[in-house]
Structures are given as structure tokens and as C-alpha cells.
């Protein structure tokens, strides 16, 4: 087994969660209004024969062939920080007028009000390290506290396009669905009302645990201390 660091844990002293990542079990000190990084146990060696093909969670009724999609100009209305040096990528979401620098890291970057590409993790091929790369690209940001970098993310509609550009190139993902999950004991609560590692992994990587390394996007933010929004995107081909 290997561990993927994540940020879904809630803090017992937190006043309000803004964006915490998926975790179980979690081992980090809590801070006021912060939701520390923990770990999600995920199979280190992915046996592709055990995984279902990548599928859309809730397919949009109409999916436009994005080879003909034209860039949509907009005036930036994002609430993410844009005044910090060291960004590793940019993120743009025309439908909500977001244009954000993206910083690599984890809880520290999130709590600084930054849109965060979760890279503060143990090596694991389930997560990608480049835009459009094989695996899941994990973005997280606070919803209401710490500047609310992802304030408008829960309103992002299925079919919306999210473009991430880094030093390797640019990739666009179309939002195909979402999960609204409850968190307790640092894990996602399953359909039986039990917090489990399996439910936590599914919340991050979907039921097929990454779809045999399909190029995907997950955007995470919070709704209070006990709930998380997970928005899922598929790479546009």
C-alpha cells in the first residue's frame, strides 16, 4: 500500500471549512479554521484488469467537440490570490470568469488563499504531475474562509470547461459530474452511514479508482465542516 496525502479532514477547532481534501486516515495537528492534510490509502500497484474503463459520472446531455471550441474572453472575477510568486500552473474557467495562478503543495497553500494543485503527496501513479497527463489532476481551494479561492466552484455546471496550463503544455477538462460527501472521523461517510477509506478513495478517484490512469480532473472544496464538494472532469480530446 502507498499513501496519498490529502486534505479532507476537518479540524475540531475549525470555525468553517473552505476546502479540505480527501483523507483517511489522517495524522496532522489541527489549527484554527484549518483542515490539515492526512493520508488516503490507495493501492500502490494498480492492476488494470480490476478496473472498469473510465466512464463519465453524470454525462452532460450535450458534449461539444472541443476541437472547435473557441477561447471565451472574460473579465477575471476569481477570488483566488494572484499576488504570490512561484505558481506552477494557471487555471481558467470561462463560465464563472475564473483565472487563477495555481500553486503546488497542500494545506499550507490552501490556507494562504491559493488555488492549489495537490502535490504534497507520496509518490503514486494514480495522480498526474502534468496538465493532461495520465492520472487524476487534483485541485483544491477554500470555499468561504482563507479568502475563499474557490467560492464559485460549487456553482460550476456540468459541461463547464476548466483549462490548466503548466510548463509542459495546456489541457482542458470538461466537468462531467460531482459528489457531495459527508465527512466524519477524517473519512468520507458511505451509503450505510459509515466513514470508510473505500468511500474516501472513491470520492477522490471515483468508483473505478482512476479509470486505469485515465486523464481526469478533480476539484475539491468544502461546505461547512462536515461536507465536501468533489467536481469531476474528463480530459477533452
Structural summary, described in words:
- The chain is mostly beta strands and 237 residues long.
- Helix content is 6%, strand content 32%.
- Strand 11 (216-222) and strand 12 form a beta hairpin.
- Mean pLDDT is 75; it is low at 1-7, 9-19, 23-46 and 62-67.
Q: Briefly, what is this?
A:
6% of the residues lie in helices and 32% in strands. It has 237 residues and is mostly beta strands. The protein has an 8-stranded mixed barrel with strand order 3-4-5-6-11-12-8-7.
Number of helices: 2
Beta fraction of the residues? 25-35%
* Major sheet: arrangement of strands: 3-4-5-6-11-12-8-7
In one word, what is the shape? globular
Describe the secondary structure blueprint for this structure:
Layout (H helix, E strand, L loop, with lengths): L1 E5 L31 E5 L46 E5 L4 E8 L1 H5 L3 E4 L17 E5 L20 E6 L2 E16 L2 E3 L5 E2 H9 L10 E7 L4 E9 L2
Parallel strand pairs: 4-5, 6-11
Antiparallel strand pairs: 1-2, 3-4, 3-7, 5-6, 7-8, 8-9, 8-12, 9-10, 11-12
List keywords for this structure.
237 residues; mainly beta; 8-stranded mixed beta barrel; two-stranded antiparallel ribbon; 2 helices; 12 strands; globular; disordered N terminus
Amino acid at each position: 500500500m502507498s499513501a496519498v496525502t490529502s486534505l479532507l479532514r476537518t479540524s475540531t477547532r475549525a470555525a468553517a471549512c473552505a476546502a479540505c481534501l480527501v483523507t483517511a486516515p489522517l495524522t496532522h495537528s489541527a489549527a484554527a479554521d484549518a483542515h490539515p492534510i492526512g493520508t488516503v490509502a490507495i493501492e500502490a500497484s494498480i492492476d488494470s484488469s480490476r478496473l472498469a474503463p473510465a466512464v463519465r459520472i453524470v454525462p452532460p446531455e450535450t458534449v461539444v467537440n472541443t476541437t472547435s471550441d473557441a477561447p471565451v474572453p472574460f473579465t477575471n472575477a476569481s477570488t483566488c490570490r494572484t499576488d504570490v510568486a512561484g505558481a506552477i500552473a494557471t487555471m481558467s474557467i470561462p463560465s464563472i470568469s475564473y483565472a487563477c495562478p495555481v500553486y503546488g503543495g497542500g494545506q499550507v497553500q490552501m490556507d494562504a488563499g491559493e488555488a492549489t494543485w495537490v502535490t504534497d503527496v507520496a509518490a503514486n501513479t494514480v495522480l498526474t504531475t502534468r496538465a493532461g497527463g495520465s492520472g487524476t489532476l487534483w485541485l483544491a481551494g477554500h470555499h468561504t474562509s482563507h479568502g475563499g479561492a474557490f467560492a464559485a466552484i460549487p456553482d460550476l455546471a456540468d459541461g463547464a470547461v476548466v483549462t490548466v496550463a503548466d510548463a509542459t503544455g495546456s489541457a482542458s477538462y470538461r466537468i462531467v459530474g460531482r459528489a457531495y460527501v459527508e465527512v466524519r472521523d477524517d473519512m468520507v461517510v458511505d451509503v450505510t452511514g459509515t466513514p470508510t477509506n473505500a468511500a474516501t478513495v472513491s470520492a477522490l478517484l471515483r468508483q473505478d479508482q482512476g479509470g486505469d490512469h485515465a486523464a481526469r480532473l478533480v476539484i475539491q472544496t468544502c461546505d461547512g465542516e462536515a461536507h465536501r464538494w468533489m467536481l469531476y472532469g474528463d480530459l477533452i480530446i
